[in-house]
Design brief:
mainly beta; four-stranded mixed sheet; binds calcium ion; Cadherin_CS; glycoprotein; cell membrane; calcium
């Protein structure tokens, strides 16, 4: 393949494709008249890939100055090679000043985006406004920075229902539906794709799983099963359970939003009764604490 003389090659950047076996060099040949036609020039090189590891990567034709690369190189390992070129006469003296040769390895898109986690988990309160930030999905791409080959675009796949959206270039997941109702659906799982080349169909794509838990808000009031209750106890007895009042609350079970707080508001002036919440069942347990003759109590409960 085509290469060049090393005569007067000025420091320049040379591009080498991953699979290219020959370097393309820019050169400027000095008019031969400036040299004694009897002088035999020999070209040599030193530096990375020649006198430093990886050895044997670059070879030069001493007579013509043609510089070749002997095997594939990986830009992600070595984005640039720094060599030095010499033009010597038959006595080993420099015919001119040694020159710097910088060989830039041109990027190809040979790396998929990589997510920082396989499964991302986040949470957001129900009733959050549309556009509320839930979480951020992270992915990286080992191809050249600031190159389209490493520019990642995010997209939600299988978004059902469309309760969330993702910002294409930042990976920020935000609420899309105005009204997320934990009591209707308490968690969402969907797939996010990260595709390089800014999401172009020619790009390389990877997927991850996103799980979002909807956090409870106390948006349901407790409801007593019945309007009135009646109970009785044998006379002359104390510290006995009189009745249980079942309450229902749609908020998250066993949370403070669910647990009812009962208070006797009237009819218990004599202090005969006590009411407590059974934290396992959310029932109000009415207990007779003092011996009584006959009484009627009425009460309300208050949510905590
Ligand atoms: Ca890439
Ligand atoms: Ca690459
Ligand atoms: Ca509640
Ligand atoms: Ca709720």
């Amino acid at each position: 393949m085509h290469c060049s003389f090393l005569y007067r090659v000025r420091a320049c950047t040379i591009t080498c494709l991953l699979s290219t076996v020959c370097l393309y060099m820019f050169f400027k040949e000095l008019p031969f008249t400036e040299y004694d036609p009897g002088v035999v020039i020999t070209y040599t090189i030193s530096g990375q890939g020649v006198t430093e590891p990886p050895y044997g990567l670059f070879v030069i034709n001493g007579k013509t100055g043609e510089l070749n690369i002997t095997r594939k190189v990986d830009r992600e390992k070595t984005p640039m090679f720094y060599l030095r070129g010499y033009a010597l006469d038959q006595n080993g003296k420099n015919v001119e000043q040694p020159i710097d040769l910088r060989i830039k390895v041109k990027d190809i898109n040979d790396n998929y985006p990589v997510f920082s986690e396989e499964i991302f988990t986040g949470s957001v309160e129900e009733l959050s406004e549309s556009g509320t930030l839930v979480m951020r999905i992270n992915a990286t791409d080992a191809d050249e920075p600031n190159n389209i080959n490493s520019k990642i675009a995010f997209k939600i796949l299988q978004n059902q229902p469309s309760s969330f959206s993702i910002k294409k270039n930042t990976g920020e997941v935000v609420t899309a539906a105005f009204y997320l109702d934990r009591e209707e659906q308490s968690s969402y799982t969907f797939t996010v794709e990260a595709r390089d080349r800014d999401g172009d169909k020619t790009g390389l794509a990877t997927t991850c799983t996103v799980k979002i838990q909807i956090l409870d808000v106390n948006d349901n009031i407790p409801v007593l099963e019945r309007q009135t209750y009646e109970g009785s106890v044998e006379e002359n007895r104390a510290n006995v359970e009189v009745m249980r009042l079942q309450v229902s609350d749609k908020d998250e079970k066993f949370s403070d939003n669910w647990l009812a707080n009962f208070t006797i508001v009237s009819g218990n002036e004599g202090g005969y009764f006590r009411v407590e919440t059974d934290a396992q069942t959310n029932e109000g347990v009415l207990t007779l604490v003092k011996v009584s003759v006959y009484c009627r109590v009425s009460f309300f409960f208050l949510k905590s």
